[in-house]
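Bumping with the actual sequence this time:
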Amino acid sequence: MDGGGAGAAYTARTAEEVFRDLRGRRAGMIRALTDDVDKFFKLCDPEKENLCLYGYPNETWEVTLPAEEVPPEIPEPALGINFARDGMNEKDWLALVAVHSDSWLLSVAFYFGARFGFDKETRRRLFNMINNLPTIYEVVTGAAKRQSKEKTPNTNSSSKSNKPSSKVSRAEPRAKAKLSAPKDEDEDSGDDGGDDEEEEHDNTLCGTCGTNDGKDEFWICCDNCEKWYHGKCVKITPARAEHIKQYRCPDCGNGNSNKRIKT
């Protein structure tokens, strides 16, 4: 998908292209509410007319009036965000704008899904990719960081650092389950904790394709963002993984020196 403006021409036809569009818009809106928050605050003057926060696919943002077209080219973001600026605590106001921004991103993504005739499976894949990202609200309020810390296991390991130890704790149950029949695990074991671990791994989604297909295939986890990936989706083979000490997925960049795998 192309263009920086709300009325740009859109040519996307796949779930991955719609997701890239959403991710760009999301990045721009997060920047407005975090790094550029002082500028954003000043632009949302309550004395002005109804203003909206737009995020664009090229990761930029803009506070402006809503589109004059009726109906608009794409769904419109929340109208009049500037009016509540001085009547609320600043953090609460930013959190409210973040919530409306999340709603807008979803409406735009699924507008494209309807416009391009996505079937049930394609819509599911699109939603899974979106759902793997923290919401704007979670980023702005700090909830994303808190959730990340809560997911980090506190168990000790003989590994050299905390990250590799968390990888082992997640990878080993998955690998053991694959030696038997995963679907019958609850029949062969009375350990409820093990069942919970297995259920967690069964629900793991690949950060690239958004599915949990190929549970018996090779997977690898990014040390930076903690997401799991099919080896084939990120072009990493088991043999190559043996020489990587720290793996970073395509979104987090290169510099691999430690790894976290499940086979």
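The tokens above came from a reply further down the thread. The chain has ten helices and five strands.
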